[in-house]
Design brief:
alpha+beta, Ribosomal Protein S5, domain 2, five-stranded mixed sheet, 5 helices, about 20% strand
């Protein structure tokens, strides 16, 4: 099996996943998934792996992620892994799409820009006439 490379983005975070045949290990920035970040983010990252257990047991996934914060990185990793798994086995596309559309399609929302002469993106200055 040839290796598959995919990319996932969320806000400023960019994750690059490489999928190749192996024993079912997931490495993120050189450390195993079990040691990466918090429990909640680990669970979020492992969603595509849980949805496709029969495919995951005989492949290794290596992910490099940089930029952004913890949540953005977790979502970028999740997207990259899901895209790699779909490229490996097309039958997973329907499963992932039914579970959560954001497993295959990047979330394009960004931070809203600050408005001129103001410190916040949305809140307006109050006017006082008295």
């Amino acid at each position: 099996m040839k290796s598959i490379q995919t990319k996932g983005k969320r806000k400023r975070a960019v994750a690059r996943a490489t999928l190749k045949s192996g024993q079912g290990q997931v490495m993120i920035n050189g450390q195993k998934l079990g040691n990466f970040s918090t429990d909640l983010l680990r669970m979020r990252i492992s969603e595509p792996l849980v949805l496709a257990p029969e495919v995951v047991k005989d492949i290794d996934i290596v992910v490099q992620v940089n930029g952004g914060g913890a949540n953005g990185q977790a979502d970028a990793i999740r997207l990259a892994i899901a895209r790699a798994l779909v490229e490996h086995d097309r039958k997973l596309e329907k499963t992932f799409d039914d579970y959560d559309r954001l497993l295959l399609v990047a979330d394009v929302r960004r931070k809203e820009a600050c408005k001129p002469n103001d410190s916040k993106a949305r809140a307006k200055r109050q006017k006082s006439y008295r």
